[in-house]
Amino acid sequence: MRRLGEVARRVDEGTIDLSDTLDLLQHVIEPKLPNIEIVGTYDVDLVAGVSLEQLIQDGSYANWDREIIQGDHFGDFPFPIEQSRVLPATFIRLDLRASNKRVIQSLRKKGLRPLSGRELLYYGKSHPFYTGSITQQVKLRCPVIALRSSWTGHYRSRKYLEFGISNHQRTLRLRAEPADGWPTNCLFAGFPAL
Questions:
Q1: pTM surpassing 0.70?
Q2: Is 156 buried (19+), middle (13-18) or exposed (0-12) by CB count in 10 A?
Q3: Cβ neighbours for 168, distance < 8 A, ≥ 6 positions apart
Q4: CA–CA gap between residue 150 and residue 140 (Å, rounded)
Q5: For residue 77, what pLDDT band results from cuts at 50, 70 and 90?
Q6: Residue 134: what pLDDT?
Q7: Each residue of 144-180: pLDDT tens digit?
Q8: Measured between alpha carbons, how far is 137 from 132 in angstroms, rounded to an integer?
Q9: What does residue 193 show for φ and ψ, rounded to 5 degrees?
Q10: Using CA atoms, how far apart are residues 31 and 179, in angstroms rounded to an integer?
């Protein structure tokens, strides 16, 4: 209540604009929800018995962060998988910066759950080169973030696997969620929620 009193006092003094202040408060009360664009859907072969190193090799990554294969970063996805199967991965883009929570909510709205780091590596193995229309190929040059698995990096930051393109070559790296949310050039992939 003291803070609202301070806002009222500053509006009376004319040091802040009432309209701008009310717009900001409205955004807190009812945040604008991002629009969800489906970029494409691609089958992913989840093949039993493939090692992490083999997934990276088969994905044709020119550059990748060695920290990815150190430790148990992909513990949320049974490995090696016991039963091979094919699942459709749907890639989405949001038109606003979004937190992990907002991205996961957006995936759920589409009946999806986020891919884990291992599952994103299986996508790279299944599609070592671009597929789809030219428009889809351009969109898939954006970084793809796997939100289902994460681990703690330096200074307790949560890191996620990022599949990207740099100088026309595939890359894998660990990336922390930006404090102001994931940028609009990021893609997120999901499998159908079971």
A1: yes
A2: exposed
A3: none
A4: 22
A5: very low
A6: 46
A7: 999 987 777 666 778 888 988 877 788 888 888 888 8
A8: 6
A9: -70, 135
A10: 17
